[in-house]
Amino acid sequence: MALRKPATLGDTQVMASTIDLATLSLELASLEASARRGAARTLGAVPEAVPLLCDRLAVESALSVRSAIVTSLIRLKSERVVEGLLPFLRSEDTGLRNAVIEALQEMPSEVEPFVAELLADADSDVRIFAVNIVSLLPHPSTPLWLTQVVAEDEHVNVCAAAVEGLAEIGTEHAIPALEALPGRFPDVPFIAFAVSAVIRRIRGL
Q1: d(CA 122, CA 193)
Q2: Tell me, what's the pLDDT at 22?
């Protein structure tokens, strides 16, 4: 009869972690919102739970549970979390989309590798949401990203969102791109007005 290898402390910890994750996974799918909410909060300390939390976020209807999931994902912030949240920018659920935008704004370093791709997305709505994220992202490159949008994006609403962002954080570097913008959209009068206001604010006038 083969002898059974004694469990080491490390083996016990791994087993306990596996059991906890399995149990919490079941609780996250409970019919009781309180159980789902409790599981979501606990999983905020388990990095391996990121896919589980994102999958649940996609179907969760209770706002309190959704909030707990988003809070836990912010606690676990990583590029993996960002990858899990970005698909929600295409959601038709405005509340969910806004919650995700706010969550991503809490992860400047983790979001940075995805900014270029987001600002080049084929969907102008996604680009607008990306600008909304970037505008409040506490990152030193934020003014440069918004200036690039103003200089290059072909959709007036995307550019308008970037102009709005530059109203708060724009620098002298943005002025040439801003001054050129009304000429790119001559049939949209509000662009010239918005640009003029932003340039005055940047110059302290």
Answers
A1: 28
A2: 87
